[in-house]
Amino acid sequence: MRSVHELRTEKNSQVRAQRIEDYRKLCRERGLALTPQRRAILEAVLDSDAHPQADEVYAALARRRLRVSRATVFRTLEGLARLGIITKACHPGSSVRYDSRTDLHHHLICTACDRVIDFSDKHLDSVPVPDTRRLGFVVSDLQVQLRGTCRECRTQEDKT
Ligand SMILES: [Zn+2]
Ligand SMILES: [Zn+2]
Questions:
Q1: Cβ distance 45 to 80 under 8 Å?
Q2: Is residue 97 part of a domain?
Q3: Which residues neighbour ligand 2 (ion) by CB within 5 Å?
């Protein structure tokens, strides 16, 4: 019998392959080539659960010795988010982060180190969305941010 970890890894690699395939299709429809650079940018986000910022993606590519400009990284990440291949996490006081998860989930945000941790909760998923139509605002998504201190930062606090 396979372990939960093995199953999860297998599932993740399927999801990863599917996401790259989706991107390839969408690129083709738009007359764009899925260049190794574009692919590597997507992979850098898919392979991270740390909600990387554009600069972190750029650094990850530099470590892989891929020649790609900062501007290309920014533009490609924005394009990926627009296509819905990845999502954009915008939290006040922090730069834009990119999220490999496109399903409904919530974020725990550490106010000490800015870490963003994925968090699922059925009750939060079903929070009733208030009627905002009188403001002319159409809600498309609901995501809850819980702020606090992460485990690592709390451990540090205990030491000092
Ligand atoms: Zn922290
Ligand atoms: Zn997330």
A1: yes
A2: no
A3: 99, 101, 118
Q: If you measure from the C-alpha of residue 49 to the centroid of ligand 1, how many angstroms do you get, rounded to a whole number?
A: 15
**pLDDT more than 90, % of the chain:** 66
Number of domains in the chain: 2
- Residue 145 CA to ligand 2 center (angstroms) comes to 10
Which residues, in sequence order, are CB contacts of 34 under 8 Å at separation 6+?
Answer: 23, 24, 27, 28
Q: What is the pLDDT of residues 41-73, one digit of tens each?
A: 999 999 998 999 999 999 999 999 988 999 999
CA distance 87 to 100: 7
Which CATH number belongs to the domain containing residue 80 in this structure? 1.10.10.10
pLDDT under 70: residue ranges of the chain:
1-8, 11, 160
**Ligand 2 center to 51 CA (angstroms):** 6
Domain boundaries, position 146: 103-159
Centre of ligand 2 to C-alpha 153, Å, is: 19
Nearest ligand to the C-alpha of residue 147? 1
